[in-house]
Amino acid sequence: MSVAETESSKMIVRITDGPINIESLLTDVGDPDVGAHGWFFGVTRRKTTRGDTTKITQSLSYEAHRPMAISELEKLAAKALADFQLKHIVIVHRLGDVPVGQASVVLGCSSAHRVATFRANEWIMNTLKQDVPIWKRETYSDGSTQWVHPIESDGPTS
Length: 158
Known about the structure:
Elements: E1 2-5, E2 10-16, H1 22-25, E3 36-43, E4 47-50, E5 53-64, H2 66-83, E6 86-94, E7 96-99, E8 103-111, H3 114-131, E9 134-140, E10 145-148
Parallel strand pairs: 2-6
Antiparallel strand pairs: 1-2, 3-8, 4-5, 5-7, 5-9, 6-8, 9-10
Helix pairs in contact: 2-3
GO biological process, one term: Mo-molybdopterin cofactor biosynthetic process
EC number: 2.8.1.12
Subunit structure: Heterotetramer of 2 MoaD subunits and 2 MoaE subunits. Also stable as homodimer. The enzyme changes between these two forms during catalysis.
């Protein structure tokens, strides 16, 4: 885990091998000087649709070059703090198998106003998927697997 704290902001970046305890993170972006807390939970969904094909998902499995991934997440968090004038940021990503209904990534940030928080969450997740060396493999109920590469924008077919 990486925690960087200054007088004006806090940044928590973590990679974990087990379930993410979301409740324990909720207070990490709290501050009497902020008016907006924004959260994103990336959760394994039951169905994956690509084009005309829908498969039942059993789990997602994540692998990473851990030191490099932590370093990139820290850079990403620091840039978001500065660019979006955030007060606090939390990024936690899970590695290993993530069953349906469980979170693989949790992102939280706070700022004085909601627009910065909304924009920051979207930018952070898009950049994380593109730039951080974490790889995802989907395992389906029929036993087949597929490595999934990030695309510019998640839509209904990803």
